[in-house]
Amino acid sequence: MTVTYTARVANARFGGFSKLLLLWRGSIYKLLYREVLVFLGGYLALSAIYRFILTENQRPYFEKLVMYCDQYANLIPVSFVLGFYVTLVVNRWWNQYLCMPLPDALMCAISGSVHGRDERGRLYRRTLMRYAGLSAVLILRSVSTAVFKRFPTIDHVVEAGFMTREERKKYESLNSSYNKYWIPCIWFANLAAQARKEGRIRDSSTFKLLMEKLDEFRGKCGMLFHYDWISVPLVYTQVVTIAVYSFFLACLIGRQFLDPTKGYKNHNMDLCVPVFTLLQFFFYVGWLKVAEQLINPFGEDDDDFETNFLIDRNFQVSMLAVDEMYDDLPLLEKDLYWDAADARAPYTAATAFMMHQPSFQGSTFDITLAKEDMQFQRLEGMEGQLEGPSVPGDFLHRLLAGGPGPGLGPGPSTILGRRLSLLRRKNSCVSEASTIAGCSCPDCGHDDSATGPLLDPPSEPEPAPPAAPASSSAEPLPSVVVVPTNRGSTPNPAPLPPWLPSPIGEEEESLA
Length: 512
Fold this sequence. Notes:
Elements: H1 28-53, H2 59-72, H3 78-98, H4 104-113, H5 119-143, H6 145-150, H7 154-159, H8 165-173, H9 183-198, H10 204-229, H11 234-254, H12 275-294, H13 307-324, H14 379-387, H15 395-399, E1 404-405, E2 409-410, H16 415-438, H17 448-451, E3 480-483, E4 492-495, H18 506-511
Antiparallel strand pairs: 1-2, 3-4
């Protein structure tokens, strides 16, 4: 039976876990005391041989062996190998419990979907639930020694009421060399389809829901079978076991106390019992015994799963849910807080203090701000703040550090000002060439026969012609972008967007 101590550690207090150290059932003492006695007996036997049996000429050889074992025993990576192994085993142990086939979801689906208060409707619901329980019993007796001892043969399953004699004949008539725990699930599906044809299951959506719950139940049964089939690789278990036992075999010799008068390093005391070596043995071998107990939780150890209890509980609860509780509703009546706007359940005297505790609203509700920091700022005022050096190293501050120019935004000494000046000069030349090419008047001397009629703007703009070098002394011309229009209309100039990608190459370096 599982050892439950949750109530003993419900509240953290001084020495809370110390109350658990005196428990015997399921404890590490019960699991490890034999190994500790064997190790201590072997240690004391070697110590007695060294002290009372070996001669003066033989003791130096034993002392050299002790020094050698003590020096090289720590090369065995016990903690590294053992830690990964126990982590793997504990995760596997918990996942196996999550795969236990519990019928709670399935019994709710059956009770709400298979209708009929007559005897046949009751027979449908009970038989469907019994098939699910039979599948769980068949898989548990395949993986659990406790369940197998309870139901060693199919005859015991029949006598227990999980299977009828007619069902046993059909079960045994199916010739298959594999585990046949899945047969009751097929019976379940066939019976549910028959209930659907008779109208006991009223629509296909409900039938689909029932099949989904059955598939989840059958999947858990299958995972238990696979966990029993696919174990932790044997080589991993062997490596961990050899590492632990070889380490303490070396400690059995290397941790012997030598004669302090001979002046060996780290041998200044002569004790009979190696206290810290015993503690190390207790921790490492205890860790290994934990993995040994958890690697198969379907045995009969103190902390193994109570599979027989689960069979009894699942069978009783599922039959109650689909039979006696079918269509059984209490009288509908108004609840105690029917007219209450702020419904709140009462507290006892032991929990009355909780009524005065404020409810949690969020972590930011505890933040306080100064009154001036909570005032909204106008956008005009914020623009002035952005130009100031309020944030050290701010990119915008460095970009506008040269001060604004006369009517043109950033000054000419800033990076942005130099970029915009060069963009205006380059786009001026592009605009003049575009204007000549798009003009339809006879004064410009443009010949349409050479270039063809004007077309609609293509989907991808053609690259701009190379810009002519601009004189540094000339005043930059206003920049325009010609919007393509129909033939014969005047071009419609539009202002140049100020944030065009910069085509600046070597000229920018010269401006810098």
